[in-house]
Design goal:
Belongs to the short-chain dehydrogenases/reductases (SDR) family. InterPro entries: NAD(P)-bd_dom_sf, Sc_DH/Rdtase_CS, SDR_fam. This protein is an alpha/beta fold and about 250 residues long. The chain has a single domain (about 10-240), classed as Rossmann fold, CATH 3.40.50. The protein has helices spanning about 20-30, 45-55, 70-80, 105-130, 155-175, 200-210, 220-230, and strands at about 10-15, 35-40, 60-65, 85-90, 135-140, 180-185, 240-245. Strands 3-2-1-4-5-6-7 form a 7-stranded parallel sheet, with helices on both faces. Helix 2 (about 45-55) links the parallel strand 2 (about 35-40) and strand 3 (about 60-65). The longest helix is centred in the middle third of the chain and has 29 residues, at about 105-130.
Protein backbone atom coordinates (compact mmCIF):
# COMPACT_ATOMS: atom_id res chain seq x y z
CA UNK A 1 0.00 0.00 0.00
CA UNK A 2 1.14 3.54 -0.72
CA UNK A 3 0.59 4.63 2.89
CA UNK A 4 2.96 1.92 4.12
CA UNK A 5 5.82 3.61 2.26
CA UNK A 6 5.61 6.47 4.77
CA UNK A 7 5.65 4.21 7.83
CA UNK A 8 8.84 4.83 9.83
CA UNK A 9 8.11 2.38 12.63
CA UNK A 10 11.27 0.94 14.12
CA UNK A 11 13.50 3.63 12.63
CA UNK A 12 15.62 6.26 14.32
CA UNK A 13 15.79 9.87 13.17
CA UNK A 14 18.05 12.73 14.24
CA UNK A 15 16.78 16.28 13.67
CA UNK A 16 18.86 19.42 14.21
CA UNK A 17 17.12 22.74 14.78
CA UNK A 18 14.28 20.82 16.42
CA UNK A 19 13.31 23.44 19.00
CA UNK A 20 11.05 25.47 16.71
CA UNK A 21 9.80 26.16 13.21
CA UNK A 22 10.57 23.68 10.43
CA UNK A 23 12.81 21.60 12.68
CA UNK A 24 10.09 21.14 15.29
CA UNK A 25 7.42 20.37 12.69
CA UNK A 26 9.73 17.83 11.04
CA UNK A 27 10.58 16.12 14.33
CA UNK A 28 6.92 15.87 15.29
CA UNK A 29 5.86 14.50 11.89
CA UNK A 30 8.66 11.93 11.75
CA UNK A 31 7.62 10.77 15.20
CA UNK A 32 3.97 10.56 14.13
CA UNK A 33 5.13 8.34 11.26
CA UNK A 34 6.62 5.99 13.84
CA UNK A 35 10.27 6.97 14.17
CA UNK A 36 12.11 7.45 17.44
CA UNK A 37 13.32 11.03 17.05
CA UNK A 38 16.47 12.49 18.54
CA UNK A 39 15.86 16.23 18.75
CA UNK A 40 18.88 18.54 18.83
CA UNK A 41 19.04 22.30 19.36
CA UNK A 42 20.79 24.94 21.45
CA UNK A 43 17.42 26.27 22.65
CA UNK A 44 16.85 24.05 25.69
CA UNK A 45 13.36 25.36 26.44
CA UNK A 46 12.15 24.94 22.88
CA UNK A 47 13.76 21.52 22.69
CA UNK A 48 11.85 20.41 25.79
CA UNK A 49 8.64 21.72 24.24
CA UNK A 50 9.19 19.68 21.09
CA UNK A 51 9.80 16.52 23.10
CA UNK A 52 6.60 17.10 25.07
CA UNK A 53 4.63 17.56 21.83
CA UNK A 54 5.97 14.30 20.47
CA UNK A 55 5.32 12.34 23.66
CA UNK A 56 1.83 13.83 24.09
CA UNK A 57 1.00 12.45 20.65
CA UNK A 58 2.24 9.00 21.55
CA UNK A 59 5.68 9.29 19.97
CA UNK A 60 9.19 8.63 21.24
CA UNK A 61 11.71 11.46 21.60
CA UNK A 62 15.21 12.00 22.96
CA UNK A 63 16.78 15.43 23.37
CA UNK A 64 20.31 16.73 22.81
CA UNK A 65 21.07 20.26 23.97
CA UNK A 66 23.83 21.27 21.58
CA UNK A 67 25.17 23.87 19.18
CA UNK A 68 25.73 22.41 15.69
CA UNK A 69 28.96 24.40 15.41
CA UNK A 70 30.38 22.20 18.20
CA UNK A 71 31.36 19.20 16.13
CA UNK A 72 32.61 17.12 19.04
CA UNK A 73 29.27 17.45 20.84
CA UNK A 74 27.37 16.71 17.62
CA UNK A 75 29.50 13.61 17.05
CA UNK A 76 28.78 12.31 20.55
CA UNK A 77 25.06 12.94 20.14
CA UNK A 78 24.87 11.02 16.87
CA UNK A 79 26.99 8.22 18.33
CA UNK A 80 24.54 7.90 21.25
CA UNK A 81 21.68 6.88 18.94
CA UNK A 82 20.85 3.19 18.89
CA UNK A 83 21.18 2.98 15.15
CA UNK A 84 20.50 5.84 12.73
CA UNK A 85 18.19 5.68 9.73
CA UNK A 86 17.37 9.35 9.09
CA UNK A 87 19.27 12.60 9.49
CA UNK A 88 17.36 15.86 8.98
CA UNK A 89 19.87 18.72 9.17
CA UNK A 90 17.53 21.67 9.63
CA UNK A 91 19.34 24.03 12.03
CA UNK A 92 20.03 27.46 10.59
CA UNK A 93 20.28 31.17 11.32
CA UNK A 94 19.51 34.31 9.34
CA UNK A 95 21.53 37.43 8.68
CA UNK A 96 20.52 40.33 6.46
CA UNK A 97 22.85 42.92 5.00
CA UNK A 98 23.57 44.41 1.57
CA UNK A 99 26.56 42.86 -0.21
CA UNK A 100 28.55 46.08 0.10
CA UNK A 101 27.98 46.19 3.86
CA UNK A 102 28.57 42.52 4.67
CA UNK A 103 31.44 41.93 7.09
CA UNK A 104 33.68 38.88 7.18
CA UNK A 105 32.44 38.01 10.65
CA UNK A 106 28.82 38.04 9.42
CA UNK A 107 29.62 35.59 6.64
CA UNK A 108 31.75 33.40 8.90
CA UNK A 109 28.96 33.14 11.51
CA UNK A 110 26.31 32.14 8.99
CA UNK A 111 28.58 29.67 7.21
CA UNK A 112 29.52 28.09 10.55
CA UNK A 113 25.89 27.22 11.29
CA UNK A 114 24.14 27.00 7.92
CA UNK A 115 26.84 25.20 6.00
CA UNK A 116 29.47 23.68 8.28
CA UNK A 117 26.84 22.66 10.84
CA UNK A 118 24.90 20.87 8.09
CA UNK A 119 28.07 19.39 6.60
CA UNK A 120 29.19 17.96 9.94
CA UNK A 121 25.74 16.53 10.67
CA UNK A 122 25.73 14.85 7.27
CA UNK A 123 29.27 13.53 7.69
CA UNK A 124 28.54 12.03 11.09
CA UNK A 125 25.28 10.52 9.86
CA UNK A 126 26.79 9.03 6.71
CA UNK A 127 29.76 7.58 8.60
CA UNK A 128 27.39 5.99 11.13
CA UNK A 129 25.10 4.60 8.41
CA UNK A 130 28.04 3.14 6.47
CA UNK A 131 29.49 1.53 9.59
CA UNK A 132 26.12 0.03 10.51
CA UNK A 133 25.24 -1.00 6.96
CA UNK A 134 22.10 1.15 7.09
CA UNK A 135 20.39 2.12 3.85
CA UNK A 136 19.45 5.47 5.34
CA UNK A 137 18.22 8.87 4.24
CA UNK A 138 19.89 12.23 4.82
CA UNK A 139 17.80 15.36 4.31
CA UNK A 140 19.38 18.82 4.26
CA UNK A 141 17.64 22.18 4.43
CA UNK A 142 18.34 24.59 1.58
CA UNK A 143 16.13 27.55 0.61
CA UNK A 144 14.40 29.16 -2.35
CA UNK A 145 17.16 31.75 -1.92
CA UNK A 146 19.35 29.42 -4.01
CA UNK A 147 17.07 30.10 -6.99
CA UNK A 148 16.67 33.84 -6.55
CA UNK A 149 18.89 36.81 -5.76
CA UNK A 150 17.16 38.10 -2.64
CA UNK A 151 18.45 41.54 -1.64
CA UNK A 152 20.22 41.41 1.71
CA UNK A 153 20.53 37.62 1.71
CA UNK A 154 24.12 37.17 0.57
CA UNK A 155 25.32 35.23 3.64
CA UNK A 156 22.20 33.09 3.86
CA UNK A 157 21.98 32.43 0.11
CA UNK A 158 25.67 31.55 -0.23
CA UNK A 159 25.46 29.11 2.69
CA UNK A 160 22.34 27.46 1.31
CA UNK A 161 23.86 27.20 -2.17
CA UNK A 162 26.82 25.45 -0.57
CA UNK A 163 24.39 23.05 1.12
CA UNK A 164 22.86 22.21 -2.27
CA UNK A 165 26.27 21.47 -3.78
CA UNK A 166 27.31 19.39 -0.79
CA UNK A 167 24.03 17.46 -0.96
CA UNK A 168 24.54 16.51 -4.59
CA UNK A 169 28.18 15.60 -4.06
CA UNK A 170 27.50 13.48 -0.99
CA UNK A 171 24.62 11.74 -2.80
CA UNK A 172 27.01 10.76 -5.60
CA UNK A 173 29.57 9.46 -3.11
CA UNK A 174 27.42 7.40 -0.75
CA UNK A 175 24.80 6.06 -3.12
CA UNK A 176 26.77 2.82 -3.48
CA UNK A 177 26.10 2.23 0.22
CA UNK A 178 22.36 2.57 -0.35
CA UNK A 179 22.28 5.96 1.39
CA UNK A 180 20.11 8.67 -0.14
CA UNK A 181 20.88 12.39 0.25
CA UNK A 182 18.39 15.08 -0.77
CA UNK A 183 17.62 18.71 0.04
CA UNK A 184 14.45 20.65 0.74
CA UNK A 185 14.41 24.25 -0.50
CA UNK A 186 11.43 26.00 1.15
CA UNK A 187 9.89 29.23 0.05
CA UNK A 188 8.86 31.90 2.55
CA UNK A 189 7.60 30.06 5.63
CA UNK A 190 6.16 31.40 8.89
CA UNK A 191 8.77 30.53 11.50
CA UNK A 192 10.49 32.27 14.42
CA UNK A 193 13.40 32.93 12.05
CA UNK A 194 11.31 34.80 9.50
CA UNK A 195 9.71 36.72 12.38
CA UNK A 196 13.00 38.67 12.52
CA UNK A 197 11.31 41.16 10.21
CA UNK A 198 9.36 42.43 13.21
CA UNK A 199 6.98 45.20 12.25
CA UNK A 200 7.72 44.61 8.57
CA UNK A 201 6.78 40.95 8.65
CA UNK A 202 3.17 41.46 7.61
CA UNK A 203 4.26 43.53 4.61
CA UNK A 204 6.84 40.91 3.66
CA UNK A 205 4.29 38.11 3.94
CA UNK A 206 1.84 40.10 1.84
CA UNK A 207 4.50 40.59 -0.84
CA UNK A 208 5.45 36.92 -0.86
CA UNK A 209 1.78 35.94 -0.98
CA UNK A 210 1.32 38.04 -4.11
CA UNK A 211 4.32 36.36 -5.73
CA UNK A 212 3.00 32.85 -5.12
CA UNK A 213 0.64 31.27 -7.69
CA UNK A 214 -0.99 29.51 -4.73
CA UNK A 215 -1.65 32.84 -3.03
CA UNK A 216 -0.12 32.01 0.33
CA UNK A 217 3.12 31.59 2.23
CA UNK A 218 4.29 28.33 3.77
CA UNK A 219 3.70 26.85 7.19
CA UNK A 220 6.29 24.67 8.95
CA UNK A 221 4.09 21.63 8.42
CA UNK A 222 4.23 22.16 4.64
CA UNK A 223 7.99 21.78 4.74
CA UNK A 224 7.89 18.93 7.25
CA UNK A 225 5.85 16.85 4.80
CA UNK A 226 8.62 17.29 2.23
CA UNK A 227 11.13 16.09 4.83
CA UNK A 228 8.97 13.06 5.63
CA UNK A 229 8.65 12.18 1.95
CA UNK A 230 12.41 12.25 1.38
CA UNK A 231 13.08 10.36 4.62
CA UNK A 232 10.62 7.59 3.76
CA UNK A 233 10.59 4.62 1.41
CA UNK A 234 8.26 6.62 -0.85
CA UNK A 235 11.45 8.34 -2.07
CA UNK A 236 13.55 5.17 -2.29
CA UNK A 237 14.60 6.00 -5.88
CA UNK A 238 15.30 9.67 -5.15
CA UNK A 239 18.76 11.01 -4.37
CA UNK A 240 20.77 14.12 -5.14
CA UNK A 241 17.55 16.06 -5.69
CA UNK A 242 16.20 19.41 -4.47
CA UNK A 243 12.55 19.35 -3.44
CA UNK A 244 11.07 22.85 -3.63
CA UNK A 245 7.91 23.44 -1.53
CA UNK A 246 7.79 27.16 -2.28
CA UNK A 247 4.27 27.86 -3.48
CA UNK A 248 5.53 28.31 -7.03
CA UNK A 249 7.58 31.43 -6.25
CA UNK A 250 10.60 29.83 -7.95
CA UNK A 251 10.26 27.39 -10.86
CA UNK A 252 13.76 26.49 -12.07
CA UNK A 253 14.17 24.21 -15.03
Amino acid sequence: MAVAAYDLSGRTAFVTGAASGIGRASAVLLAEAGATVHCADQDARGLHGTAILIKDRGGAARTHHLDVTDRAHLKRAVASCEGLDIMAAVAGIMHSSPVLETRDEDLDRVLAVNFKGVLHACQEAALRMIADGTRGSIVTMASSAVDTGGPGLLCYGVAKAAVVQMTKTLAAEVGRHGIRVNAVAPGWTRTPMTARHGEGQSQTEAFMTRLSPLGRVGEPEDIAHAVLHLASDAASFTTGQILRPNGGVAMPW
